Sequence to fold (272 residues):
Amino acid sequence: MRQFVCYNAFMTIKEYIKTRKEELKTEIALMKVKPNFVIVQLNEDDASNAYVRGKLKDAAELGINAKLIKLDISTSEAELLKLIDKLNNDKAVDGFIVQMPLPKQINEETIKLAISPDKDVDGFHPLSKLNPCTPQGIMNYLKHEGVEFLGKNAVVIGRSNIVGKPMAKLLLKESCNVTVLHSKTSFEDMYRYLENADIVVVAVGRKFLIDDKFKFKPSAILVDVGINRDENGLHGDILPERPVKFQTPVPGGVGLLTRLALMENVLKIKRP
Ligand code: NAP
Fold:
């Protein structure tokens, strides 16, 4: 099975990441003081460990100073808030994240709101100057590939605070006609919106929710955010190889764009 569908001159995501990383490396190499980025990790499940490893690897590759602070899984919310306060006030730290998900005794929303919007490189705080990494990474890529937004019909499936809603906001900012669908949308309505869509972003978390029952314009661009793991590996929310202009692969698609956007967010804080 092919890993991605690309019927036009779109640069593959892997090629794009390589090119963009070279540009960022050059920019960082010229900085007298390198960006300082901190990751706070409590959960040590396989997925969290893999995400943290990836972020540390990306930072090292680009020349960003990254430090991992590991806290015990039994750490209380008060203790974590104390550390966040310290990082908020540490002038040597440009940006930091607390790796999600957090253990049950800690309220994730409280933590997201405790991180200073000036250092919130995940872009989760409502007052953050930065956008959440997944929608920002998708927009960076689509813009790099010269995708037209003005007056185009964009459909976002999923309305979470970290993907669906900010994605819709960014598409609206580019003057797309944006429709947001969710679990209460009927099949008939979803079908109707999708067959008229120019840009589709699916962020649900259901393997192949968008299957061959749905029809697309041949010129449509499909962005698959979903990550669904089963015994055969990772799968997206969209059945692969839809007959469209471009469809992002899973794995090797939006996950890579998200990782890159985090590094770009660290850099944005450091830039004058
Ligand atoms: P989430 O918070 O669980 O939100 C899922 C959204 O999907 C909700 O808005 C929900 O609607 C909607 N939904 C559920 N079932 C649906 C259905 N049958 N039809 C239409 N909409 C439906 O998830 P999330 O954090 O946004 O993440 C979504 C997916 O993206 C997950 O697979 C996640 O692992 C993945 N993800 C990937 C990356 C990456 O870097 N690749 C980053 C973030 C997330 P309601 O609001 O009505 O419940």
